[in-house]
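Field log, afternoon session.

UNIT: design team B
ACTIVITY: writing a sequence onto a fixed backbone
BACKBONE:
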């Protein structure tokens, strides 16, 4: 295992009120980094996370991003528009502002990546250098984001990308687990599963993703200028493992499993942007997918991984989906350990 570099400094987190941005900000603060974040309501944000140095500003404003980046050695680009509306108008300009700021101050850019920029031609085993032929508008934007970061790396900006499967975990919003599989706010009476038995699916527990990003940052000086890594996360090899973990978490081995209402998504997709995007992403539930982490293991020595049952229980507790006698409030960053 490569020895951890204990060098710290100042990091600018864009999207620090979000799931992955917030988790990385907390983790770096615990590592004694000076954590700075840009927010359009800095006063409100500071009341929720006083350990962060909040700066008033907007990621859509290049001047604001450049000013906030002064003195930073790392910029975490974890900012995303809510939902799927206006993605094409907002996502790329925000990334351009980050790239310009990184060039100006000599900072490294760290991006939490996704699988959306890959189409089924790259499946079933997805490696870091697979061709990117996305099926969706969001995937095309993600592909362009990485292309711009690749070009920036060739112009002297160092880049780390960590791609992972579908997020779940405390603080993870707008994801398949909390918006598809379960209904937040009350104990579960059923699971709605979008895939089919026998179709492998890739999941990633958000605290583990944040911890992995932090460890890559700690080893940044040993990485190439453009470093892309894949997490294995929680690999459900036959489409039944996540269902079984949820049943164990709620203490009901017979919890009903219903088919996800794809028919309704298709019917409403012309009128609801979210449903249009979900319909386009259906191939991720029809095609088996496995992300290998060989490159990550070669870099870090191992992959941070919380035991599956602990991760699912913490997620359901945070969503209010456990019976009162089982629910417990999880910590912001779950303990990381190797799963047996």
């Amino acid at each position: 295992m490569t020895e951890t570099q204990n060098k710290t400094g100042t990091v600018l987190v864009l999207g620090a009120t979000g799931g992955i941005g917030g988790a990385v900000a907390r983790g770096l603060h615990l590592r004694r980094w000076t954590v700075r974040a840009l927010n359009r309501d800095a006063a409100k944000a500071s009341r929720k996370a006083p350990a962060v140095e909040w700066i008033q500003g907007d990621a859509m404003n290049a001047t604001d991003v450049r000013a906030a980046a002064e003195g930073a050695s790392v910029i975490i680009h974890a900012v995303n528009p809510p939902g799927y509306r206006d993605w094409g108008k907002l996502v790329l300009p925000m990334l351009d502002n980050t790239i310009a700021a990184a060039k100006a101050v000599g900072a490294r850019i760290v991006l939490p990546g996704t699988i959306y920029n890959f189409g089924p031609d790259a499946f079933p085993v997805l490696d870091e250098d697979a061709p990117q032929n996305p099926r969706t508008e969001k995937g095309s934007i993600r592909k362009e984001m990485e292309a711009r970061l690749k070009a920036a790396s060739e112009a002297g900006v160092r880049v780390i990308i960590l791609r992972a499967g579908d997020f779940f975990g405390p603080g993870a919003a707008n994801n398949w687990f909390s918006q598809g599989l379960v209904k937040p706010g009350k104990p579960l009476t059923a699971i709605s599963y979008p895939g089919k038995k026998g179709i492998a699916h890739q999941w990633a527990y958000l605290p583990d993703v944040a911890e992995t990003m932090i460890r890559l940052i700690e080893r940044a000086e040993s990485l190439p200028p453009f470093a892309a890594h894949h997490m294995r996360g929680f690999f459900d090899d036959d489409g039944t493992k996540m269902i079984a973990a949820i049943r164990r978490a709620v203490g009901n081995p017979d919890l009903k499993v219903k088919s996800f209402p794809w028919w309704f998504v298709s019917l409403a997709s012309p009128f609801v942007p979210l449903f249009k995007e979900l319909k386009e992403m259906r191939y991720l539930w029809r095609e088996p997918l496995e992300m290998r982490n060989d490159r990550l293991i070669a870099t870090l020595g191992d992959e941070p991984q919380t035991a599956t049952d602990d991760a699912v229980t913490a997620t359901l507790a945070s969503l209010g989906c456990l019976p009162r006698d089982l629910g417990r409030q999880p910590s912001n960053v779950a303990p990381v350990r190797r799963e047996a």
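LOG NOTE: The radius of gyration is 19 Å.
NEXT ACTIVITY: expression trials, pending approval
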